[in-house]
Amino acid sequence: MTNADGSLQDAAAALAQARAAAAAAQAAADAAQAALDEATQRAEAAAAADADPAPSGPSAPTRPVASGPLSDAAVEAVRAGYDFEGEAVQMGALVNGEALADVQVRIPLGMIARHGLVAGATGTGKTKTLQGLAEQLSAAGVPVFAADIKGDLSGIATAGAPSDKLMERTRGIGQDWRPTAFPTEYFTLGGLGTGVPIRATITSFGPLLLSKVLGLNETQESSLGLVFHYADSQGLPLIDLSDLRSVLSYLQSDEGKGELKELGGLAPATVGVILRELITFADQGADVFFGEPEIDTADFLRLASDGRGIVSLLEVPGVQDKPALFSTFLMWLLADLMNDLPEVGDIDKPKLVFFFDEAHLLFADASKDFLAAITQTVRLIRSKGVGIFFVTQTPKDVPGDVLAQLGSRVQHQLRAHTPDDAKALRQTVQTYPVSEYDLGEVVQSLAIGEAIVTVMNEKGAPTPVAWTRMRAPQGSMDPTPATEMQATVQASPLLSRYGVAVDPDSAKEMLARRLEAAAATAARAEAEEIASREAAKGEKERSAAQKKIDAEYDRMARQTQPRRTTRSSSSRSASKTPIEQVLASPVAKTILSEVMRGIFGNARRR
């Protein structure tokens, strides 16, 4: 390096340091000016209050003065950021030290279809947030589907009960709270619980989702896909688990093991694994879900007579025992909706909003193909007018590719009691837009029923991060009584369509008939072969007996012949003894033949 080069580098470094120092000085000056302006505003406000005391009685709301982590400018940015022109779902009021009732946090109704996430530790208010969103969507004429994991959501069908504490809270956030019940339908998986039974056929469920439920590896998943392909090509409907077991058993039998030879065939070990998993799956009671009549997902898009959206609640008792079935079933519903609904693009309000509670169950131990299918479904179903809200404990429960598709974020309190919790907290904070909050501290200090919110505005841009005190549900905070739920189910128009399971002609019966026909054909062939062998054996025995008869006759004939003379034939004939003449007669031959046949066991039965 020459001296000139070194001098140039030193000069460049000095210039960079000078620019950095200038930038730091400017930033400090800006901060000082901002502090001075804020102090001046407060002093002017205090002086004005002393000079002109506020009159008694109601008055127009004044501009909020910052008393929390946000400056006045940031509060105004939140106010403007959530001031939408169109219809919106109310989330709650901004908290800046105290709740600011005049700074409302909302989600544009049209942006609900851009999906969302509701996260937070257990007991922080996620379920009540979900209930409040579902109530407002129903009131706006949007149907809702949600899984009621703990039974708490059933209270949406019953008007809430006012209390002093509740009314104080709702007044503080500017909520005009009124007890309201919302139109509700109850569903259960295969009839396990209180609700209209939901069933699906194995064929419509498909090999990918079923592999996820059964915990199959990629090789086993591929083999299961081959079985589905065979059943479809052979016109064998797979309605329930017994149909699938029948097809697997048939393909391993002598009659069916050659059916898939051209496609590579099925390894007996793989078939054994799948059959064992199917048996275990059925023993857990999951087989009641598969069957007919299959639910028509269009029934989840209904409106009540008053124009409100019907809230469909899926009761899932004992979800801990069947987490894979629960989560995968919800994924099946989404896939079925995506296949059936037409493209609508961006619309003013969704056709359906789907709340996917306990979302971590869906993604646990999922294969790459399964995750790819979920990501594609989330990406494409928006254009069908369906919005999805994933509800879970931490954002890290949702894969990054799926998380990137979510437009709205509602983050309740997170705790950092363990290193894993602390890591999850840091990862969560890093995904939010830049704000004046110390999110790592705020997220841990949120009270029950408060959340950090950011959504998409009407133009698709993220709104400012807002510490929000969430609105209270207008339905009951407690579950609806079981008797009322049962009465609702009995009055449902869907019960007559889905209430009773049917057992149609399917793969199990078809293969049974095929095997019976093959067995009958084989039995006839075996019988014909046995008859042919017996006939050949009898003919052989009869031929042997005839030879013995002929030989015996010849022997006896030779014994009765006299010595040869030179007399003529006529003379010999004339000189035959009476015994020779009798033996030579046709009658004697017939009698002798019958006698010999009786001796050798070939006499005919008369």
Question: Overall mean pLDDT score?
Answer: 82
CATH topology of the domain at 72-200 and 294-482: Rossmann fold
CATH architecture of the domain at 72-200 and 294-482: 3-Layer(aba) Sandwich
**Which strand order do you get reading across the main beta sheet?**
2-1-12-11-10-3-9-8-4-7-5-6
Computed over alpha carbons, the radius of gyration is: 44 Å
How much strand?
5-15%
Count of separate DSSP helical elements: 20
- Helicity range: 40-55%
Residue stretches low in confidence (pLDDT < 50, at least 5 long) are: 1-9, 45-66
User: Which word captures the global form?
Assistant: elongated
InterPro entries: HerA_C (IPR033186), P-loop_NTPase (IPR027417), T4SS_component (IPR051162)
Domain Helicase HerA-like C-terminal: 100-603
Region (Disordered): 33-68, 531-581
Biased composition (Basic and acidic residues): 531-557
Description:
- Residues 531-557 have a biased composition (Basic and acidic residues).
- This is Helicase HerA-like C-terminal domain-containing protein.
- The structure is a single chain.
- The chain is of the alpha/beta class and 606 residues long.
- The protein has helices spanning 3-51, 72-81, 126-139, 164-172, 202-214, 218-233, 241-252, 268-283, 323-340, 360-363, 368-381, 400-403, 419-430, 439-445, 482-490, 495-498, 507-560, 569-574, 578-584, 586-600, and strands at residues 88-96, 98-108, 116-119, 144-148, 184-189, 196-198, 311-315, 352-357, 386-392, 408-411, 450-454, 466-470.
- Strands 2-1-12-11-10-3-9-8-4-7-5-6 form a twelve-stranded mixed β-sheet, sandwiched between helices.
- A hairpin with a 1-residue loop joins strand 1 (88-96) and strand 2 (98-108).
- Helix 5 (202-214) runs antiparallel to helix 9 and helix 9 packs across helix 11 (368-381).
- The longest helix is centred in the C-terminal third of the chain and has 54 residues, at 507-560.
- It is elongated and about 150 Å long.
- Residues 1-9 and 45-66 have low confidence and may be disordered.
